[in-house]
Design goal:
Largest sheet: 7 strands, mixed
Number of strands: 13
Shape: globular
Helix content: 40-55%
Number of helices: 18
Strand content: 5-15%
Length: about 575
């Protein structure tokens, strides 16, 4: 009887669908009865193109629909005669101010815009460099006395002398030619292998040196994009916390990938893992966790992220660019932390900067992979170039062998014990600063920072006022946005006698002064971040940022005009 009932239902369903199909056919024929065949074909093509274009607009783009719609709306406003002219006028004024601040015209200061007719003698050249160095404002030298957040990761004067000598010995070396410079090839291979062991990589784990954290992240994302392409994914997706480094957005921009940002908890600043799980699609190729993230110094739930990646058979990249040479030594330094590296089965790649807490010179980092196959996706090879067979492991072709040699020398000079001791000093100082900040009425510390960064905000006054007040006292902290905040990234310079105590004392004094009138707004340069966050058209903010970059590359002061203006 059950079989008969099911057969009856199938029959009814079949004839019902057939009846609706016949009705649709008759309706369509009646609508098209007055048209000639060529018109029917033209309508069919037109509607198909329209639907295809609509689909492409809605779904076939690495940029989310909301972002594109918002951008289109503001671009339309900027195209309107009155509104657009007003916006452009204000933008031009801001850009002009930016240029004047970056490329000032000061008495006695000249800019060279062409080669000298005859080369400068060595002594004359040194004198000119010394003259340029006198242009530095006092605040720009404050890193030497521990007044600057992060920025300069100095390993000591003796190490600097060693690096200078080592760099000089390999300043002409280029690892693009391993047959000519075999010692640099060996050094790079050893740096990578030491880092692999540091992050507990197994037999097949490998990596390469890069020019910095951004290139390390770019290469990792490139390798995952290639994996996505091999699976037939048109726009491979990166799923990452909104607190991840901007280099992931850069990778998405360069490589036509889609970056899906995941919100973080407003209190802990840790990634919302439930939201991350919901964001995974068939196009997702990699999940991202930071250890720690730059804004607030919080370590993301790396283990949960790795497990999620393993479950969905996709990649998991751990960004250790900031903490890469602190985290591996924290347990030995007396500060245990959760597992974050290749010991977690789901972790497939790691980026770590040797030029931060590794104390190597700027321009050195590593990207590491669980397998050689994954690394191979970042390589490039040309078999048909007339110049010969060409292959390179990173984005650059020629690379500075001197940097590689100096990085190798740094690792050898420091040794494990040196890094453990440095880690102990830095983390201890960071914890001292964090504890003191938590006791100051009017400000709060974001989350539970575990490494070298302490970020603070305020619920009662404009935090950028505090940034401005500290700047006047010679401090240079990092201003952050969304939410408004500032942070200090502690380095070895901050561990020197009296530096942390002075920062705490100045913080207490500045906050106490601001609390006398907490409702006042920030002014001058301190107000820039507050104003930037309030501008709904983010393209305007981008235009100002790009104007700053353009000005940095200019040797023509604003008052006399510039080639770009012309």
């Amino acid at each position: 009887h059950m079989a008969d009932a099911l057969h009856f239902l199938d029959t009814v369903l079949f004839y019902s669908l057939r009846e609706y199909a016949d009705r649709f056919r008759l309706f369509t024929n009646s609508c098209l009865s007055g048209l000639e065949p060529w018109q029917v074909a033209a309508y069919a093509v037109g509607i198909t193109l329209l639907l295809t274009g609509l689909y492409d607009f809605l779904f076939d783009s690495p940029v989310p629909l909301f972002v594109r719609a918002k951008g289109r709306f503001f671009n339309t406003l900027r195209d309107l005669p009155v509104i657009g002219a007003k916006i452009q006028d204000e933008l031009d004024k801001t850009v002009s101010t930016v240029r004047r601040s970056v490329v000032p015209r000061e008495e006695g200061q000249t800019y060279r815009t062409e080669l000298p007719k005859d080369g400068l003698a060595r002594d004359e050249l040194i004198r000119e460099i010394e003259t340029m160095e006198t242009l530095l404002k006092p605040v720009e030298n404050n890193w030497k006395v521990g007044r600057v957040s992060g920025t300069v990761y100095h390993g000591g004067d003796e190490l600097t002398e060693v690096l200078t000598e080592v760099y000089g010995r390999s300043s002409w070396a280029n690892p693009l030619h391993p047959d000519v410079f075999p010692h640099v090839r060996k050094m790079e291979a050893e740096v990578v292998e030491m880092c692999v062991q540091l992050f507990n990589g197994r037999d097949d784990a490998c990596g390469s040196m890069t020019s910095g954290g951004t290139e390390s992240i770019l290469l990792a994302c490139l390798s995952y994009r290639q994996v996505g392409y091999a699976k037939g994914i048109k726009y491979p997706e990166i799923v990452a916390p909104v607190s991840c480094h901007a280099a992931f957005e850069k990778a998405a921009h360069y490589f036509q990938m889609k970056l899906v940002h995941i919100p973080v908890n407003s209190e802990t600043r840790m990634c919302d893992m439930q939201a991350m799980a919901c964001a995974i699609t068939n196009n997702t190729v990699v999940l991202v966790a930071s250890a720690p993230q730059f804004p607030h110094g919080i370590i993301d739930p790396v283990e949960e992220t790795a497990q999620l990646a393993l479950k969905h058979k996709i990649g998991c990249h751990v960004d250790c660019c900031l903490g890469g040479f602190l985290l591996p030594f924290m347990e030995d330094a007396g500060f245990p932390i959760p597992v974050f590296d290749f010991r977690l089965p789901g972790v497939t790649s790691i980026s770590a900067d040797t030029h931060k807490f590794g104390f190597a010179p700027k321009g050195s980092s590593v990207v590491l992979y669980r397998s050689r196959k994954q690394r191979s996706y970042q390589f490039f090879a040309s078999a048909d170039w007339q110049g010969g067979i060409y292959a390179s492991p990173t984005l650059a072709g020629s690379r500075p062998g001197g940097i590689i040699a100096a990085c190798w020398a740094t690792l050898m000079y420091m040794g494990k014990s040196g890094y453990v001791e440095a880690t102990k000093k830095i983390i201890s100082t960071t914890r001292t600063i964090e504890g003191a900040f938590r006791k100051i009425d009017g400000i709060f510390v974001f989350g539970q920072p575990r490494v070298s960064v302490v970020a603070i905000g305020s619920k009662v006054f404009d935090i950028y006022r505090l940034s401005g007040a500290l700047t006047k006292l010679g401090w240079n902290l990092n201003s952050l946005q969304f939410p408004p905040s500032i942070h200090i990234c502690c380095t070895l310079r901050h561990t020197e006698d009296g530096v942390a105590d002075q920062l705490i004392a100045d913080m207490q004094d500045c906050v106490a002064e601001i609390m006398k009138n907490p409702g006042e707004k920030a002014t001058g340069s301190a107000a820039i971040y507050g104003l930037a966050q309030s501008i709904p058209d983010r393209n305007v903010v981008k235009d100002i940022a790009l104007a700053f970059i353009d000005a940095c590359l200019s040797a023509t002061p604003e008052e006399t005009g510039s080639k770009s203006d012309k």
